[in-house]
Amino acid sequence: MGSVGVVGAGIIGLSSAVCILERDPTVKLTVIADKFTPNTTTTMEELERLSQRDDAGSYLTIYKTTTFDVTDESCEDPFWADLVDGYRHLSQKELAQISKTTKFGYSFTTWFFNGRNYLPWLIERLKSLGGTISKKTINSLDELAGSYDVVVNCSGMGARKLVNDSLVHPIRGQVLRVYAPWIKQAYCLNTKEWHTNGEVVLGGTAYHNNFDTRVNADDTRHILESTSQLVPSLKQARMINAWVGLRPGRTSARLEKEEKRFRDKSGKEACLKVGFWNT
Ligand SMILES: Cc1cc2nc3c(=O)[nH]c(=O)nc-3n(C[C@H](O)[C@H](O)[C@H](O)COP(=O)(O)OP(=O)(O)OC[C@H]3O[C@@H](n4cnc5c(N)ncnc54)[C@H](O)[C@@H]3O)c2cc1C
């Protein structure tokens, strides 16, 4: 039995914490974060497993749906084409039905879930496995030396400051949430994507290195116009809210481990195993 501190309570931190406890329930584990859901930014086998639960539909809102991705330029198959179910190219007839300007498109079936339900569920799961949570800001990983044998750093955008990871940068995203239960499929036209579950998410702007978390009226107008062009019935959808978040962008995902030597509070040298997990 050892002690593990997980920094970060977004989807990466909470999923990592639950996985560690599911593998070894004797571990003494604490999730340390300054923000918890719904204030964090927020994946196929795990979703498949979760989808078999009794509460997959009512609480976790995990479901499978067909997605149509189309672009105005011809492009190559995505690298993940073999990972999803039923990947196929759209016929010219299907493309014309979606938009007159599209030249290339594909369809596939995959899992969707709503982070607003999934993260609270992960916190409950963590607690039921004996894990604890601690709300505080960590200024340096040194602070955790002596308290934990292993630290897993899943701090998202926070890694910029916490571990000076200059490759982590914000990708500002604005989305609109509307009520349109008649929409049963997901579409992605160039960069405009939306998912369905009664509540439909429209958009997903992506501005690199932009820290502004205020809702922008021009973005709202642009998202409404472009998605309504694709599916005119969206003009009738009731707006629920607009939301901006900063995706923790990184030139490549960071999944690595290292051993750090620190002085603990009493001045004794301590060794801390640190795992990094940043998307
Ligand atoms: C508009 C928008 C739409 C998106 N759509 C999708 C989508 O459709 N599909 C998809 O897969 N992804 C989507 N994403 C991306 C996805 O939300 C993120 O990639 C994901 O949430 C990142 O999770 P994370 O756990 O790495 O970071 P976060 O959720 O940002 O969590 C970081 C955690 O670390 C904590 N933390 C950081 N620094 C410190 C510190 N110094 N001390 C203590 N705690 C600290 C924070 O408090 C927080 O708890 C979208 C993002 C946005 C903004």
TrEMBL record:
UniProt GO BP: D-amino acid catabolic process
Entry keyword annotation includes Signal: yes
Residue span(s) of domain FAD dependent oxidoreductase: 60-249
Cofactor(s) demanded: FAD
Keyword tRNA processing attached: no
Main location group: other
Keyword field: FAD, Flavoprotein, Oxidoreductase, Signal
Localisation: Peroxisome matrix
GO molecular function terms noted in the UniProt entry: D-amino-acid oxidase activity; FAD binding
Signal peptide location: 1-17
GO cellular component, one term: peroxisomal matrix
Cited Gene3D superfamilies: D-Amino Acid Oxidase, subunit A, domain 2, NAD(P)-binding Rossmann-like Domain
Similarity-based family: Belongs to the DAMOX/DASOX family.
Protein name, as recorded: D-aspartate oxidase
Source organism: Acropora cervicornis (Staghorn coral)
